[in-house]
């Protein structure tokens, strides 16, 4: 009986141990869940590589380069400045004819305009102020002003012509002075008292040093105000072409100074206060380019003109209606009426039209008509 109890006790203990193992025990850490009839697959190990995986290099973002701001050179002199340096500036500009009035040592509006013009002409920065480059350029083109220049004291230059001189240049001087009513009487080749008085009057009127002798300043001004004297003027001759009658003149030609051009008889008459002074044969434009008719006035003159449109010479041109002008025509002189102009009034007497050119003034009337 005791042996049976011991066997039963061993059986009970074994059953308890089996139950605990099924219902309460932990799985081993290395165990993996399995499905009936399947074998679990373990992930393959990666084989290490000796070549490293390249890392992408980031592209740098370009940095914008700022545009440099142009700098204006510092001004040595500018509006409002005064003093001796401004006087020198004005005197140097005056040497180059950029500054006209008296030197006053004040950087005023006239000085600004002079500096601006000088800079623009030399393609320098146009500021109206004097920087170092402007000053160096100006100094390089001029001479150091004298005390007389700085203080508006004019001194005569070396004498070109003076009392006692003789020759053709004296004739030219007298003829030019005669054109502007400073010399009267016959033109001669001797620089005498009459010429001296005429030169003095001309100089005094223009506030030049009044010496009665011709220096470069005086001569340049006389030439600027006159035209080259004709041979007739140099030798006191009346032009050979000395007029004609008034038959057939348009009534508009009877007053004032008029180039009276008659298409009916191919004539041009120079009429002053109803008196015919000179007469010319003329020809006109063709049917394709006719000479305009009507009342005009001389608006410009060009002694040695060349047509920019037709590239042909038009000496002694006196323009009256856009591109139409009275002028000498070598073709008319050579071929007569066997041809025509492009609208201009052609003259074939060269010597006579040269004299006419010197007599006609801008603003004189031009009448083109049929009588």
TrEMBL record:
Residue ranges, compositional bias (Pro residues) = 55-73
Question: Which keywords appear in this protein's UniProt record, sorted alphabetically?
Answer: Cell shape, Cell wall biogenesis/degradation, Hydrolase, Peptidoglycan synthesis, Transferase
Any one GO CC term of this protein is: extracellular region
State the InterPro entries in the record.
LD-transpeptidase, LD_TPept_cat_dom, Peptidoglycan-bd-like, PGBD-like_sf, PGBDSf, Transpep_catalytic_dom
Where are the catalytic residues?
327 (proton donor/acceptor), 344 (nucleophile)
Where in the sequence does UniProt note compositional bias of the Polar residues kind? 31-44
Ranges in coiled-coil conformation: none
* Region feature Disordered, mapped onto this chain: 27-84, 228-249
UniProt-recorded Gene Ontology molecular function terms: peptidoglycan L,D-transpeptidase activity; transferase activity
Record SUPFAM superfamilies:
L,D-transpeptidase catalytic domain-like, PGBD-like
Asked if Transferase is a keyword of the record, the answer is: yes
A single GO BP term for this record reads:
cell wall organization
Ranges of residues in domain L,D-TPase catalytic: 257-369
Pathway listed: Cell wall biogenesis; peptidoglycan biosynthesis
Q: What is this protein called?
A: Peptidoglycan-binding (PGRP) domain of peptidoglycan hydrolases-containing protein
| Species whose genome carries this gene | Jiangella alkaliphila
């Amino acid at each position: 009986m005791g042996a049976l109890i011991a066997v039963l006790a061993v059986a009970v203990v074994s059953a308890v141990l089996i139950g605990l193992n099924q219902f309460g025990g932990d799985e081993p850490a290395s165990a993996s869940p399995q499905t009936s009839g399947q074998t679990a697959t373990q992930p393959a190990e990666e084989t290490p590589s000796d070549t490293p995986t390249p890392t992408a290099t980031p592209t740098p973002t370009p940095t914008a380069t700022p545009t440099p701001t142009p700098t204006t050179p510092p001004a040595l002199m500018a509006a409002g400045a005064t003093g001796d340096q401004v006087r020198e500036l004005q005197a140097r500009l005056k040497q180059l004819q950029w500054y006209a009035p008296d030197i006053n040592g004040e950087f005023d509006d006239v000085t600004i305009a002079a500096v601006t013009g000088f800079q623009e002409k030399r393609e320098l920065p146009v500021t109206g102020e004097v920087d170092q480059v402007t000053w160096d350029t100006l100094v390089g083109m001029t001479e150091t002003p004298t005390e007389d220049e700085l203080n508006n004291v004019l001194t005569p230059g070396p004498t070109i012509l003076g009392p006692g001189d003789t020759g053709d240049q004296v004739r030219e001087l007298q003829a030019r002075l005669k054109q502007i009513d400073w010399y009267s009487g016959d033109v001669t080749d001797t620089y005498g008292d009459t010429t001296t008085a005429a030169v003095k009057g001309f100089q005094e009127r223009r506030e030049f040093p009044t010496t009665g002798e011709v220096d470069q300043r005086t001569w340049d001004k006389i030439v600027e105000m006159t035209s080259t004297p004709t041979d007739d003027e140099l030798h006191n001759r009346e032009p050979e072409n000395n007029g004609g009658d008034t038959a057939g003149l348009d009534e508009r030609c009877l007053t004032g100074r008029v180039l009276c051009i008659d298409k009916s008889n191919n004539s041009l008459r120079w009429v002053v206060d109803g008196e015919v002074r000179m007469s010319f044969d003329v020809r006109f434009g063709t049917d394709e380019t006719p000479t305009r008719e009507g009342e005009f006035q001389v608006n410009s003159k060009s002694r040695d003109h060349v047509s920019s449109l037709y590239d042909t010479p038009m000496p002694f041109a006196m323009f009256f209606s856009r591109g139409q002008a009275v002028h000498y025509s070598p073709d008319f002189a050579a071929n007569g009426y066997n041809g025509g102009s492009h609208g201009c009034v052609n003259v074939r007497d060269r010597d006579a039209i040269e004299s006419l050119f010197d007599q006609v003034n801008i603003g004189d009337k031009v009448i083109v008509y049929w009588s």
